[in-house]
Amino acid sequence: MKPAAFDYVAPRTVAEAVDALGTGGRRAQVLAGGQSLILEMRLERIRPDLVVDINRIPALDELRVRDGTLRVGALVRHRAFESAHAVPGPLGALFARAVGNIAHPPIRARGTMVGSVAWAHPASEWCAIAVALDADVEMAGPRGARNLAAGDFFQGPLKTAGQPGELITSVRYPLLGDDTGVGFVEHRRTHFCFAQVAAAAALTARGGVISEARIGLVNCADRPLRAHAAEAALTGVEIGPPLDGYRLPENHPFARAGRIAAERDAAPVAEPYADLEYRGHAIAVVVARTLCQAASDQRSRARALEGESR
Amino acid sequence: MKITLTVNGEEFPLDVEPRRVLADVLREDCRLTGTHLGCEHGVCGACGVLVDGEAVRSCLILAVQCDGSSVRTVEGLAGPDGEPSALQRAFSAEHALQCGFCTPGFLMVATGALEADPTLGDDPDRIEDLVRSNLCRCTGYEPIRRAITRAAQEARQLAP
């Protein structure tokens, strides 16, 4: 279908955009990359009266690091994260591992990370990473600017704590230190499908012992989740030597953490091709594999650090 | 809304409704029907064009968003004398099309990538990623991959 008729404005500043969004009583939508919005408008699941195109607001395309914090502006496209060096340290590596799972190059050239956060799809890679890393969502609105922790921002499928008239101007992530290893593993039916299950992990270890684990779950509930119970089960565990073969022993700490994530953290929703039993199994396997990847990344970073200090 | 698009070097002053996507405006207002519409959901990639050098789905971008932009479509690939581009010649040589419906999209996404990075031919994974961007229901992916690789290697040899 073709989108239903709407008015269109392309403001030049955030203040103008907020003014336009707040024009009383009309259903307004922010257009950034548009790769979900225009599709939803074609399907007429969204019928805005007004589309506010923020692509001509110059300040929003900034990717900036300051005081250990990465600030991703609302117009930074997915593609910006394809190189692991776009963002310093392990955070850049995590983004680069995740971004390849998002659609394909032409969509990644238009779609934005912040747009994914605003859209809040349960299968979004970026949303789960934001929750796992305690990112901050920065919004501008008629009553001024405010910040919200990602964990409080997502409230259900396509539901957020953002209010009508508010515009997300950026998402801020704490950078990860070099003692942290990262992993991202996604499982989906075909290359074109959304994630059936995916997981992001960041493991921080000192002296070979895990001091902090962060696990983000993609499409394991009606919203992005952090796997607190699985994380707690990993603290104080030895990161251990690399494992041979693909299948982890049942009693391996990562396999156990995967099962805990599936049983205690996740609240999966049944879908065609993926009933609850299947999803639970897939979550356990995907989390365990993500942890293996993060552990291997952590070991190689630790080796590189040792090499430097010699 | 009044907008101006530069399509394949030619200026088109247009008056379009905001609801109209770029693909429809190219086909109906600019009369450039080489850009095909398949799924209109951003999946198939038949509508691929370059906007300011970047490969995009023209079914998922509004024409009004492209005001002042430079658009290239499959009609803009051939030289002024009608000579096909190196990539088009490679598609022909490798039999990279059967029914041809998906071909404009593949040509544009590959043209954008080759122009952005002439070393593309050295990286089979990136070529595979590009080929996976679009659907070909004659399932001629392998010849398409070979054609892009061939054009990339030729461009590399010609480069000083």
TrEMBL record, chain A:
Residues 1-178 form the FAD-binding PCMH-type domain. Keywords: FAD, Flavoprotein, Oxidoreductase. PROSITE patterns: FAD_PCMH (PS51387). InterPro entries: CO_DH_flav_C, CO_DH_flav_C_dom_sf, Diverse_Substr_Oxidored, FAD-bd_PCMH, FAD-bd_PCMH-like_sf, FAD-bd_PCMH_sub1, FAD-bd_PCMH_sub2, Mopterin_DH_FAD-bd. GO terms for molecular function: FAD binding; oxidoreductase activity. This is FAD binding domain-containing protein. Pfam families: CO_deh_flav_C, FAD_binding_5. SMART domains: CO_deh_flav_C. It comes from the Bacteria.
Automatic annotation (TrEMBL), chain B:
InterPro entries: 2Fe-2S-bd, 2Fe-2S-bd_dom_sf, 2Fe-2S_ferredoxin-like_sf, 2Fe-2S_ferredoxin-type, 2Fe2S_fd_BS, Beta-grasp_dom_sf, Diverse_Oxidoreductases. Pfam families: Fer2 (PF00111), Fer2_2 (PF01799). The keyword rRNA-binding does not apply. Pathway: Alkaloid degradation; nicotine degradation. The keyword Metal-binding applies. Residues 1-77 form the 2Fe-2S ferredoxin-type domain. It comes from the Bacteria. GO terms for molecular function: 2 iron, 2 sulfur cluster binding; metal ion binding; oxidoreductase activity. Keywords: 2Fe-2S, Iron, Iron-sulfur, Metal-binding, Oxidoreductase. PANTHER family: OXIDOREDUCTASE WITH IRON-SULFUR SUBUNIT (PTHR44379), XANTHINE DEHYDROGENASE IRON-SULFUR-BINDING SUBUNIT XDHC-RELATED (PTHR44379:SF8). This is (2Fe-2S)-binding protein.
